[in-house]
Specification:
It is a single chain. The chain is mainly β. Among the domains are: 72 residues, Thrombin, subunit H (Beta Barrel), CATH 2.40.10.480; 91 residues, Cytochrome c-like domain (Cytochrome Bc1 Complex, Chain D, domain 2), CATH 1.10.760. Helix content is 11%, strand content 32%.
């Protein structure tokens, strides 16, 4: 469909918008079938809308316990649903697979996909292949051992399960592929799970009847802690080709052997037909976190090529003969202090989908050049239900390491996968930014973290049109046609791992909102409400210096992932320096008693006691009193 094209893109206007009623991260790719749009929001809630008008048809809240938000490594996001027949399928933050009647929104069944009640979460979209629902999960840092499962789409019965890493070697192996993997592990990795979770990246080739699965990072991150005597640690950070009928392994390729940096291969897997060296090839393409763009033969798994698409200081190149990255000294770290290494754990490219234009042979990648701070955690002691990456420094050490890190830079990169080089790239003002959409009329659409939907010329990156929606966009746009008209839709709402609200939006409510555009439409973009910044004088400082220091350490262990480093909000979750007197009076009830669990603030009574909770409060209060009002305003 080329109705929307470079000649008329300036006529694109808002046809309708819809508020999800949810806040935090919105990462969904909507689906449109028979004039109905299906999308997911935070807490795995499914919304069905009239795609012509945005009118609500039904909403299904699967009832994920809000206190489980603490168990989601990367916020309570959801990247989409799957459709098959008369049903919608969605994975939930608490690890269930739910089937919904798509005509009325009623739940048909739900199954618990977890094993042994480990803290598995589902944020990725299921896939339907030959009557089977394929779903993975996340949670590597919380003790998970990765697997991907297939369920009967009608009954919800488990058909097969492929474990991506071996478990306790004293127990029988679950399938024959683990015989290849087991010798590549050392130590007692299984006690903390090992990782390898399948939290996104699933693709299917019906002609070859192959299901492609991207696997996640090792847990803990450091291989010195996880597998102390070395080894590639199969099948971490790998692309697997499985037979979808029975889950058998056909071939595998490991992008980051012996993963040491949280370099998942769960990023978008793209299937294409390319002419390489004069020969037509059926290829698989991926730009995983590690900074290299891979082209593989998707029938055999043969390595074709790989080159840097983003800055990487952990490896010099990928060996063209072996297909293995060549690690270098600048990517090595130990327990002596934090080392900045490119890319960070957010990756050169993360979950945000990339797009392909077969006319130009360009892949459009949301790229990020950002260093991570890596260390081997001293006195590593994993705790149940807590992020145990093994990459924790003291707050002071972390601050010193951050001072050595260059400022992150984000780009929209057009990559030529045949030449393995950039075609063009443009730098964005903020990071991270949304996924991309490429259309047949040689347009590229991308949302940005500072709240713009931008349209670029696919050939050279020239910006042709942009719309300000005043809400950060992480999700990819989609296009669809109804009644002969082409539409563009995108879901806005900032959140997720590593996301920090840009300064320009910190005074705005971070609501979830769907925007749908078409030519000639002219509805005004809805205003976004301002955040109310309370004028609160913090309580007087209290506690001994030792108690405040203890609170600082505890805060960074248990609180900073959501509430921000140094008690400075990321602009999405509440800034604790503005805690009201009521919050301070009920501090222990909130932190230990679950008073705000319905809002997503979990109880931490399983890992800290009352004295420790008050130590955290003493640190927050001291931070609030030492921050100028101007800084407080900026922090919002």
């Amino acid at each position: 469909m080329q109705q929307i094209n470079p000649a008329n893109i300036g006529e694109l206007g808002l046809a309708w918008s819809y508020d999800t009623g949810q806040y935090r991260g919105h990462e969904t790719t909507p689906l449109v079938v028979d004039g109905v749009m299906y999308l997911t929001s935070t807490w795995s809630i499914v919304h069905a809308l009239d795609a012509r008008t945005g009118k609500i048809l039904w909403v299904n809240d699967p009832g994920t316990p809000r206190e489980l938000g603490r168990m989601a490594c990367c916020d309570v996001v959801n990247r989409g649903a799957a459709l098959w027949g008369d049903s919608v399928y969605v994975g939930t933050v608490d690890g269930r697979l739910v089937r919904i009647d798509r005509t009325n929104g009623e739940t048909v069944w739900n199954v618990d996909t977890r094993v042994n009640n480990i803290h598995y979460t589902i944020t990725g979209a299921p896939r339907i292949i030959k009557g089977k629902v394929i779903i993975g999960n996340g949670g590597a840092e919380l003790g998970a051992r990765g697997y991907v499962s297939a369920y009967d789409a009608e009954t919800g019965d488990l058909e097969w399960r492929f474990w991506t890493v071996p478990g306790d070697p004293s127990l029988p192996l679950e399938h024959s592929a683990l015989e290849t993997a087991l010798p590549t592990w050392t130590g007692e990795w299984w006690k903390v799970g090992g990782g390898g979770t399948v939290w996104d990246a699933l693709a299917y080739d019906p002609e070859l009847n192959l299901l492609y699965v991207g696997t996640g990072n090792g847990a803990p991150w450091s291989r010195a802690l996880r597998s102390p005597d070395g080894g590639d640690n199969l099948f971490l950070s790998s692309i697997l080709a499985l037979n979808p009928d029975n889950g058998d392994l056909v071939w595998y390729y490991q992008t980051t052997p012996g993963d040491n940096w949280d370099y998942t291969a769960t990023q978008h897997i793209m299937l294409a037909d390319l002419v390489i060296d004069g020969t037509p090839r059926k290829v698989l393409m991926q730009a995983p976190k590690n900074g290299f763009f891979y082209v593989l033969d998707r029938a055999t798994g043969e390595f074709i090529s790989a080159e840097n698409y983003a800055l990487a200081t952990w490896a010099s190149h990928v060996d063209p003969v072996t297909g293995r990255p060549v690690e270098i000294e600048s990517g090595v770290y130990d327990s002596s202090g934090g080392v900045p290494i490119f890319p960070s754990a957010l990756g050169g490219h993360n979950w945000h989908p990339m797009a392909f234009n077969p006319n130009l042979n360009h892949v459009y990648i949301p790229k990020l050049d950002m260093a991570g701070i890596y260390t081997v955690e001293r006195d590593y002691n994993p705790e149940t239900g807590i992020n145990n990456s093994g990459n924790r420094l003291s707050p002071d050490e972390f601050g010193a390491a951050m001072a050595m890190r260059a400022e992150p830079k984000a780009y929209l990169l057009a990559w030529d996968p045949i030449k393995q080089q950039p075609a063009w790239e443009i730098e964005h003002a903020t990071w991270p930014n949304g996924g991309t959409l490429a259309t047949a009329s040689n347009l590229v659409f991308q949302g940005t973290g500072d709240g713009h939907l931008k349209v670029f010329a696919a050939e050279d990156g020239k910006i042709l049109h942009e719309v300000s929606v005043e809400i950060g966009i992480m999700a990819p746009p989609i296009t669809f046609t109804l009644d002969g008209e082409q539409y563009i839709s995108v879901v806005a709402g900032s959140g997720g791992a590593g996301v920090r609200q840009p300064e320009v939006l910190r005074h705005k409510q971070n609501t979830g909102r769907v925007f749908t555009f078409k030519l000639g439409a002219n509805k005004p973009i809805p205003a976004v409400a301002d955040k109310a910044i309370p004028d609160i004088t913090p309580p007087q400082n209290f506690g001994t210096p030792m108690q405040v220091e203890s609170g600082k350490q505890l805060y960074h262990r248990y609180c900073s992932r959501c509430h921000g480093g140094s008690a400075t909000s990321n602009g999405i979750i509440r800034d604790l320096r503005h805690a009201t007197p009521t919050i301070h009076e009920n501090w222990n009830n909130i932190v230990l008693g679950g008073m705000f669990e319905a809002l997503g603030m979990a109880s931490f009574d399983d890992v800290i006691d009352e004295d420790q909770a008050q130590a955290i409060r003493s640190y927050v209060v001291k931070t609030a009193n030492s921050t100028s009002e101007a800084e407080v305003q900026t922090a919002h």
